[in-house]
Amino acid sequence: MSQPLITIGHMVITVGETLLLGAAGFGLLLVAIVVLLMRAAGNRQVSEIDAKRREAELQTQLAEMTGRLHTFMQATANRDAHLAQNLNERLDGVTFKLGQNLHENNERTGEHLRILHERLAVIDTAQRNLTELSTQMVGLQDILANKQTRGAFGQAQMEAVIADRLPASAYAFQPTLSNGSRPDCIVKMPDGGLDIVIDAKFPLEAFTAFREAKDPQDTKLASQQLRGDMGKHIKDISEKYLIPGETQETALMFVPSESIYADLHEQFDDVVQKAYRARVMIVSPTMLMLAVQTLQTLFRDSQMREQAGLIQQEVGRMMDDVHRLRDRVLALQKHFGMANKDIDMILTSSDKVTKRALKIGQLELEEAGSDDDSKAAPPPEPAPKLVSGGLG
């Protein structure tokens, strides 16, 4: 072992030293191999730790993205539910308001239609009154033919003619005038006109005596008595019944028989002329009926004017009701237009919500695709920014 093996200058290397050097080199080699193996194992462990760390980070990011996506989907669902609730409440409010307006308008329309029916009923009544007034033809009644011997014959006949032709409110029997006199009848003229006085106290006894006279002397005496009675009666009528501002300027003296009226005009023309001068008109039953028919026409015209005025008032009120009904219908049409506008706006919002939902669905598909790619490569910057950008 101590034998020299190699001599280098003054240095001698023995076999033992050589073996020791070889053992030392082998040991160093083993140490180097062990170090290399330990380094290789450490590197693998570090790589595995790094890979696990990256995998954990990826899983964390994936879980975070999944949580954010779940939160976003939940928020979107909440917004959709809130929007649907608002839409339902708005629709319910519009429907309730529209129904209430329709109900109120129906009530108003029904009330106005009821008022119109009442006004039309009043107009129908007025029209029936006009028809009755225009078609009323009442025959002469209770006109007695043989009452020349009765003192009340003229009064009864005159009352029968007046009562059969004129309405009860248009005449009065035995009224009292302002001077205290009481004529047999007055006819109240329409429209505030002066009254017409009719006297039926014809001196029938003198005329009866004139007719029953047997000789010229009796006839002469009877005629004088008739002229005297007629003159006095004409004077009484003129003085008592012709009152300025209360009665007409002419009064009527009723003669109860056509034959007496004819005899007066034939044999006592002076008496007739005296009556004309005193503004007293002598009338027979036929003349009185003609005068009453003329008065009846005047009354009918006055009543027709009153009824026409009533009809005009009712028509004017009906036109006011029609105008109010038209205004209500226009208001109802306006409410319908507003309701249609609200429904159009709701439909527009619904379309926007549908488009927004489709866009969100597309974003969810894109996020799902990016999750599949993240297993092989790192994901891009957080998807929530893309989602919020898409909602904007």
Q: How does this model look, in words?
A:
This protein is rod-shaped. It is 73% helix and 7% strand. Helix 2 (153-165) packs parallel to helix 7, helix 3 runs antiparallel to helix 4 and helix 7 (285-373) packs antiparallel against helix 8. It has helices at 15-135, 153-165, 204-212, 216-241, 258-267, 269-277, 285-373, 383-391; strands at residues 4-8, 11-14, 171-173, 185-187, 196-199, 251-254, 280-283. It is built from eight helices and seven strands; from the N terminus they run ββααβββααβααβαα. The strands form two sheets. The protein has a five-stranded mixed beta sheet. A two-stranded antiparallel sheet has the order 1-2. It has a domain at 138-283.
Topology:
Layout: E1 4-8, E2 11-14, H1 15-135, H2 153-165, E3 171-173, E4 185-187, E5 196-199, H3 204-212, H4 216-241, E6 251-254, H5 258-267, H6 269-277, E7 280-283, H7 285-373, H8 383-391
Parallel strand pairs: 5-6, 6-7
Antiparallel strand pairs: 1-2, 3-4, 4-5
Unreliable spans: 137-151, 380-392
Major sheet, described briefly?
5 strands, mixed
Instruction: Supply the number of helical segments.
Output: 8
Order of helices and strands: EEHHEEEHHEHHEHH
Quick gist of this model?
This protein has 392 residues and is α/β, with parallel strands linked by helices. The protein has helices at 15-135, 153-165, 204-212, 216-241, 258-267, 269-277, 285-373, 383-391, and strands at residues 4-8, 11-14, 171-173, 185-187, 196-199, 251-254, 280-283. The chain has a domain at 138-283.
